[in-house]
Amino acid sequence: MKAPRFRKEAAVFFFFFCLLAVCQTFPTPADRDTLMILEQFQFTGGNLLTTEKELQVNYILKKIKGKEIMEGMKTGKFAPAMHFFRAKELIEQSPVFNIIQMMPKGAGLHLHEYALLSVDWLVKNATYLPNCYICFTPVGGVRFHYFHRMQQRKMVNCSEWVLLEQYRRQIQNVTEFDNSLMRNLTLITENPEEAYQSQNIIWQRFSDAFAAASSLISYAPVFKTYFYEALKEFYHDNVQYIEIRALLLPVYELDGTLQNKTWSIMAYHEVARQFKDDHPDFMGTKVIFSVHRKSNNTEMKTAIYEAMELYNKFPETMAGFDMVGHEDAGHPLWYFRNELSIPAKLGVKLPYFFHAGETDWEGVHVDENILDALLLNTSRIGHGYSINKHLVAKQLSQKLDVALEVCPISNQVLMLVSNLQNHPAAALMAEGHPMVISADDPAVFGARGLSYDFYEAFMGIGGLKAELTTLRQLALNSINYSAMSAQMKVEAIKLWQKKWDQFLDAVVHMFNSDEL
Ligand SMILES: *[C@@H]1O[C@H](CO)[C@@H](O)[C@H](O)[C@H]1NC(C)=O
Ligand SMILES: *[C@@H]1O[C@H](CO)[C@@H](O)[C@H](O)[C@H]1NC(C)=O
Ligand SMILES: *[C@@H]1O[C@H](CO)[C@@H](O)[C@H](O)[C@H]1NC(C)=O
Ligand SMILES: *[C@@H]1O[C@H](CO)[C@@H](O)[C@H](O)[C@H]1NC(C)=O
Ligand SMILES: *[C@@H]1O[C@H](CO)[C@@H](O)[C@H](O)[C@H]1NC(C)=O
Ligand SMILES: *[C@@H]1O[C@H](CO)[C@@H](O)[C@H](O)[C@H]1NC(C)=O
Ligand SMILES: *[C@@H]1O[C@H](CO)[C@@H](O)[C@H](O)[C@H]1NC(C)=O
Ligand SMILES: *[C@@H]1O[C@H](CO)[C@@H](O)[C@H](O)[C@H]1NC(C)=O
Ligand SMILES: [Zn+2]
Which residues lie closer than 8 Å to 467 by C-beta, 6 or more apart? Predict the structure, then answer.
């Protein structure tokens, strides 16, 4: 539903005309109401029509939300203002969080393939499979590999391989050891400010966690089960569809055989199909093939050709192309302009979903990524964190309807912002800029599905102004801005609407409004 824009602008114009030129009097309550309504109207979801039931649920939601925010103001203990590692428990006690978990959230559009599923499964199940070996790096990290004893080859910068089954038999406290493995696979720590004193330091640990996780997930049997379990985790968090960024690194078999990218795409497709067979009210999954932004031009060119071929061969599963890795430390998009222009020059379709503007460093060359992403015809912008500093890019993304994928917890943990009330998306929400909420790497941050990020967006970024229609708009946006086909979107909206109605009933049933 699009807002009748001209009327809104006319109203604003009339109001200021009145205020400045003609009616120079004291402001009346009616003037004030007009301004407040205008602001609310522009806010994400502010112009959506509501049903009777939605009004009822909104009433409930506003009450418990207001109570929680007021409590936070009074005590100074407010989850979005705290580091997520400390806020997590508090969030889990929140009735607002409980409602958000129940809510059908639509699609998760910004996620990475090695950080989808809570690490418990990797440690408690994957590392307990037969033939799992571990080695220890000099900086206190770990890597894994599954193979037959005879085929072991020592890894560079890692100790000799040790069979985990044997290792666990030798050590005194297996629980403690397993906990240490979980710490290796996440960034979670008691005192993050002390442990991670700069973005470079945390990105190093972040990459190490990815390397450890990928060494497990790249084993063919783990690869498939991991993805199935990940879909289950999102499904149970009431997410109907996900798009994942994937490097499509070689997956290995026990005998050392390496599988190619085609195999990985087909595996994602098969697992998703299996999952959908088991859970018909799930919409599916798509893959955004991604390469590291530290690649050189030759590698990028190869990747683009591979991406075009995969997109052509697997239109159902492939969504497009992106680049990943620490943005400040990688090449800017413009560095690859020749390679990234190949599809357009050849007249071949390859949608882009560029990460851009995941930086605090205004004016450095990677800071231009956000504008270049739009120049290069990106379909969405991953993060777009710095967009408020780029007026032209902001106007363009609004005009071209290019949504930002806002990942609050990721931005906080990776040290772009500490208090999520100050997240730049607060300003973007106030003007209804196209956006979706996602989780980036929930497993590495200790989150699960999308609910934690939705909570931060709803409570911290949106503040008291965000209402039920904000949540509804964000969920609808996630379907609308996904790479699903037009027909699939119609189906997805239908499915979502059914779940939404059930959700509304459940909330009404759960909260007796007389008690509030
Ligand atoms: C979906 O996006 C289109 C433009 O891409 C927009 O016109 C429409 O209003 C959107 N629908 C919803 C429900 O947000
Ligand atoms: C993981 O391991 C636990 C304990 O052995 C088991 O109960 C559970 O079913 C396993 N989960 C999966 C998905 O294999
Ligand atoms: C091994 O470690 C050294 C020293 O830290 C580093 O220079 C080198 O790049 C590493 N090699 C690999 C393959 O990671
Ligand atoms: C093993 O470690 C866990 C976690 O650190 C701890 O709770 C438990 O008491 C330890 N068990 C023994 C027998 O030391
Ligand atoms: C990773 O695991 C190893 C082996 O248990 C441990 O020595 C190390 O402290 C762990 N790393 C982190 C960050 O906890
Ligand atoms: C990828 O591997 C499959 C077998 O899994 C093979 O049929 C196919 O030709 C390979 N593709 C490429 C591009 O090498
Ligand atoms: C790009 O990187 C590859 C290694 O991945 C290397 O073989 C090649 O020489 C590099 N090309 C240029 C132009 O630097
Ligand atoms: C821009 O991207 C859209 C969506 O992928 C595509 O339909 C269009 O052809 C692209 N335009 C150019 C010039 O590449
Ligand atoms: Zn990302």
Answer: 45, 58, 61, 62
Any idea of the CA torsion for 158, 160, 164, 167, to the nearest 10 degrees?
-120
Query: 202 C-alpha to center of ligand 9: Å?
Result: 15
How far is residue 187's CA from residue 448's CA, in Å, rounded to a whole number? 14
Give the pLDDT score at 153: 83
Structure tokens that stand for 445 in this block? 């941050």
The protein residue whose alpha carbon is closest to atom 1 in ligand 8 is 377
Cβ–Cβ contacts within 10 Å for residue 253, how many?
13
Token couple for 131: 């033939």
- Predicted pLDDT at 8: 55
| Cross-strand bridge partners of residue 405 | 382, 436
Task: For residues 5 and 143, give the distance between their C-alpha atoms in angstroms, rounded to a whole number.
Answer: 55
| Domains, in order of start, for the chain | 1-11+50-115+242-516 (3.20.20.140)
Q: Cα(421)–Cα(466) distance, rounded to whole angstroms?
A: 12
- Find all residues with CB under 8 Å of 322, minimum gap 6, and list them: 245, 288, 289, 290, 352, 353, 354, 355, 382
Please state, in angstroms and rounded to a whole number, the distance separating the CA atoms of residues 170 and 164. Answer: 10
Joined together, the tokens standing for residue 458 give: 């709803």
Per DSSP, helices labelled H in 110-191 are 119-124, 164-170, 174-185
pLDDT digits (tens, 9 = 90+) for 414-448: 999 999 999 999 999 999 999 999 999 999 999 99
H-state helical runs in 314-403: 337-340, 342-346, 369-375, 391-399
Q: Which long-range contacts (CB under 8 A, 24 or more apart) does 361-368 make?
A: 361/328, 362/386, 362/389, 364/328, 365/332, 365/334, 366/327, 366/328, 366/330, 366/332, 368/332, 368/333, 368/334
Which pLDDT score, from 0 to 100, does residue 2 have?
40
Whether residue 362 lies in the annotated active site: no
pTM for the model stands at 0.94
CA of 300 to the centre of ligand 6 (A): 21
CA distance 349 to 311: 8
SS3 120: helix
Residue 21: what pLDDT? 52
Residue 19 has pLDDT above 90, yes or no: no
Q: What distance in angstroms lies between residue 482's CA and the mean position of ligand 6's atoms?
A: 29
296 lines ligand 7 (CB under 6 A): yes
Given a cut of 60, whether residue 243 has pLDDT beyond it is yes
Is any atom of ligand 7 closer than 6 Å to the C-beta of 302?
no
Place of tokens 């009450």: 63
Asked if residue 233 lies in contact with residue 116, where contact means CB atoms within 8 angstroms, the answer is yes
Helices (H) and strands (E) in the chain, counts: 23, 13
Which secondary structure element, helix H or strand E, spans residue 293, and what is its range? Answer: none
Of these residues, 326, 383, 390, 423, which one is catalytic?
A: 383
Q: How far apart are CA 141 and CA 463, in angstroms?
A: 39
